[in-house]
Amino acid sequence: MPDKLQSLSEAEVAHDPIAQFGEWYERALAVEKPLPHAVALATASRSGRPSARMVLLKSFDARGFVFFTNYRSRKGQELARNAHCTLLFYWGSLERQVRIEGRVTKVARRESEDYFATRPRGSQLSAWASPQSETVPGRLALEQRMSELAGRYPDQVPRPAHWGGYRLVPEAIEFWQGREDRLHDRILYRRTRGGR
To answer: What ranges do the domains of the chain cover?
Structure first.
């Protein structure tokens, strides 16, 4: 049964925010369908103009939260100029949100290579075919490009140099639990100067 309207207090949460996220994430994986790992990524241009879109969380640990994308996309270009960003998870069936603020760095090339190799062939080809955030002549042009690439790479599809992962290193993580009468609970973890 979903944990609707469950309370959230400092006495109930883990000392380590990554461990606390892990507990909530496991619960979301069990009940939230279809994409519990979908997360809104908010970036901003150098001048401060915001934008947001959905990405998929692929891993997390004490080093941070990892997602993959096209480095030439709008989000990639904005992150290259302004590494500050926010991830926001919303699990409606649990009435829970987790907001993670911090800075991104690109993951090691080997990590991007390893993950790319696990993707379905069609997803590998689309990483080459789709010029994310650019205007295309139409759907037919994309489908023709996919067909050309399938012929060029009949077996293994190499990872494009313009595609890879980012790791968001958290500076703040806020856990939000919905409560009755909109009197919600929030617990905020903030990284200190010592890095903890």
So the answer is: 17-116+163-190
Token output for 93: 């069936």
Distance CA 146, CA 144 (A): 5
Collapse the DSSP code of 158 into the 3-class scheme (helix H, G, I; strand E, B; otherwise coil) and give the result. coil
- Residues whose CB falls within 8 Å of the CB of residue 2, separated by 6 or more in sequence, listed in order: 31, 93, 94, 95
**What number is the average pLDDT over the span 35-63?**
96
Confidence (pTM): 0.88
Q: Shortest CA distance to 54 belongs to which of 73, 37, 76? A: 37
The answer to whether 94 and 28 are in contact (CB under 8 A) is: yes
Superfamily designation of domain 17-116+163-190: Electron Transport, Fmn-binding Protein; Chain A (2.30.110.10)
Asked whether 107 and 167 are in contact (CB, 8 A), the reply is yes
Q: Which residue has the tokens 């998929």?
A: 56
pLDDT digits (tens, 9 = 90+) for 76-134: 999 999 999 999 999 999 999 999 999 999 999 999 999 999 999 999 999 998 877 77
Q: Is 182 a residue of the active site?
A: yes
Give the list of residues 6+ apart from residue 38 with CB closer than 8 angstroms, or none: 54, 55, 56, 57
Asked if the model's pLDDT at residue 30 lies above 80, the reply is yes
Structure token digits, residue 189: 């973890």
Catalytic residue among 49, 110, 139, 182: 182
| Residue labelled with tokens 């009197």 | 183
